[in-house]
Design goal:
The chain contains eight helices and seven strands. By secondary structure, the protein is α/β, with parallel strands linked by helices. The chain has one domain (3-231): Spore Coat Polysaccharide Biosynthesis Protein SpsA, Chain A. Strand 1, helix 1 (22-32) and strand 2 (40-46) form a beta-alpha-beta unit. The chain starts with 8 loop residues before the first strand and ends in an 11-residue tail after the last helix.
Length: 242
């Protein structure tokens, strides 16, 4: 039996070369679980890390009863890691947080409060603690994405989201599409809500983002989304005798 099916909410944590953050991750996630609004577990997705992240994940999962992991055979990128986590999770709700802990697990409770009324509830990073250059890149990318997709999401890059697993498993994923989750939910006629959450400076490890995957890549992905939107199949079964 998939152990995540015993919980209401699975927190996905994609990990790529974050060995310096693993101790703090364990501490903050372990402190959060007893306070979560619903019974919750943690699922690490090791994305082919080349440092000691996998070893540290295994050690954490031996210590912590509600922590689990899967490890990808090779580094496949954030979208693939999130998809692998969604495909693995069998709890009714699934969410994710970045391993850099620039957002807090405690703020999942803000999102879970409204998840019964929406298919997705996402964070908006308030008082962002990133460099001015990163903020400008994000502002440009978000503006372009909103124009191309028609959604009104202010901060699609915020690494704090909660989703109904049933909807998340129907999302068509490909590289870079983690930035388009709200727009992809709209293809299902799903509803989402945006809630301000706290944001903190990175304290360990190195950012995996640069000009290409923060700005140029998403610019090109918008055209892929527009193509998909024009051909997306969305149906509901009205009746059956199965």
């Amino acid at each position: 039996m998939n152990k995540t099916s015993q919980y209401q909410f699975t927190i996905l944590v994609p990990v790529y070369n974050e060995e310096d953050n693993m101790s703090r991750l364990e501490q903050e996630l372990a402190q959060y679980l007893p306070t979560a609004r619903v019974p919750s577990c943690v699922l690490f997705i090791n994305d082919g890390s080349k440092d000691h992240s996998l070893q540290k994940i295994q050690e954490i999962c031996r210590r912590q009863p509600h922590f689990y992991y899967i490890s990808l055979a090779k580094n496949s990128g954030l979208s693939a890691a999130i998809k692998a986590g969604i495909d693995t999770a069998e709890s009714p709700l699934v969410g994710y947080i970045d391993a850099d802990l620039q957002t807090s697990p405690e703020d999942f409770n803000l999102l879970l409060k409204d998840i019964d009324q929406y298919e997705m509830v996402m964070g908006i990073r308030a008082n962002r603690k990133d460099t001015g250059f990163k903020k400008v890149q994000s502002k440009i990318a978000n503006g372009w994405r909103r124009m191309m997709t028609g959604d009104d999401v202010k901060d699609t890059g915020c690494p704090l989201k909660v989703m109904h697993t049933e909807n998340a498993k129907r999302v068509p994923f490909f590289t870079g599409m983690h930035r388009f989750l709200p727009a992809l939910f709209l293809l299902q006629e799903a509803r989402y809500k945006q809630i301000p959450v706290r944001h903190f400076p990175r304290t360990a490890g190195q950012s995996k983002y640069h000009l290409w995957n923060r700005l140029v890549g998403p610019f090109m992905d918008c055209f892929a989304y527009r193509w998909m939107k024009s051909r997306y199949i969305n149906y509901r079964v009205a009746e059956n005798n199965i």
